[in-house]
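Could you show me just one protein sequence together with its fold in token form as a worked example?
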Amino acid sequence: MKLENILELNQKIRFPKSKKKIKIALISNITVSIFKYFIEYNLKKKGLNVEVHVGEYNNLIQNAYKYKTFDIIVIFYEFINIYENFEKIKDVKNLIKIKKNFLKDLNLSLKILKDCPLTIVNDFNHFYINPKNKLIDKFIKASNNLNQFILNKKNTNIHIVKLNNFFKNFDINKFINKKNYQYSKTLYNSRFMQTYAEKITLPILSINGKPKKALILDCDNTLWSGIIGEDSNISKKKSWKLFQKVQKIYKNLKNKGFILCLCSKNNFKDVSNFFNTTKMPLKFKDFTIKKINWNNKVNNIKEISKELNIGLDSFIFIDDSSFEIGSVKKYLKNVDCIQVPKEDKDYLFEIENLEHDLSLLKQTREDKIRMKSYAQERKRISSKDNFKDINEYIKSLNIKINYKNNNKISIQRASQISQRTNQFNLTTIRYSENDIRKFVQNKNILITEISVKDKHGEYGITGSSIVFLNKKDKTASIDTFALSCRVLGRNVENEYLSWILKELKKIGIDKVYSEYVKSQKNDLVKNFYDLNKFKVILSNSTKRKYILDLKKI
């Protein structure tokens, strides 16, 4: 996509003034001012109100200090400019000295940015260096050393963009312009800028309440090469081993908590038999929902979304058919689509990168039990039909709620709930693990969680709250109150709030303030505080503020 198209499309996307701006800083040692527009467009079309700031040219440490309070930092440093005039470098000692100095600056910058919710760092490639250069082996070694340093960083907020792998698979000369670099330090063309903006979209969505939760997979030419029912030699093809590697990646993602679903135009029995009679990494039981029929795939995906009770923007759809991909893109714009490339090796590369881009989301115990919970939910729905009275049904579930607060909570899960939960989230404020860790250590903050189970099984940790305390004035303010949609409609939310209010009463709080901030997805909870006897003290089209006098309850 050309720059003029991006600029035009950017202007068309508008957000209400009340929608929070996500601030991104782009720090680089090459000219990246045009990148700003590609990044903004790709994130805006996904519903994020972003504002990209371009840092001072080649000033790493100072930029780190300047932008350390931003939501996201992108460190876009290039090997070509770390070793300025590298074609003229003849002294290996000088090469080593330059590398050590840069590593020192990079290490300090990452320390400065340790509390930033997300720091994106490119790894380094050497593919634009003339292979005839006498020091090419030394440059490659230096590049590899820099990459190893980044990989060894333990910061939980760092996500690495693997440009080195990208340019191993694709000719770098299709993405760069060396003449432009000589004149203006602009190395990459618009084709690469769009590709890069797409590559950093998934991790940015993940920390801003739009994580991917499920993969919807086609079967033929997606999980294996060939068409079952027509091709009897699928497992004997040369490409079989490569597709096995692809399946292993999908299996790994499933084990990390991602839901796998099938959406294939096939005979159900043929697919079932193939899975049951063919040795493969993926088993038929690995798929939570199987839409194997001759129906429209758009409708099948809608049904999957409804059955799982998760939004369409939580899905990635993978298919080899340009027709199916085009149809889903046209009618289900919130679903991310990946078309299986024609070259098998490109497909493996694409899915390896997908696994890496999804790796920012850490696995919690709740992720491991999520697949079980969908099967359990079907049992709950089935048993619900036996009751005419909803309260009797809820009573029959024998729900048990376990409450924890402050240093007993799961920091990782509390952060995850704030970042992932959209429907039952009163304020949709997003917090990193570092934020939660600070809250836990603060005596003027009450942070709590609940875990829930019933006679059908565990839901895991499904709720989190953050309350700011003013003990001197005997007041408290509920900053965050969020629950997983898996426990809604069972009175858990009301029991949880009631418990929090009792805890506040115990420590001498008389008045509690709360707030509902409208978002695209939380209309479900707009009357939650009203129903729990809070009084409205301010109301407009985007928010409501409340107060509750604990002495009167």
Summary: The first helix runs from residue 3 to 12. The chain has three domains: 3-206, 214-357, 385-552. The longest strand covers residues 457-470.
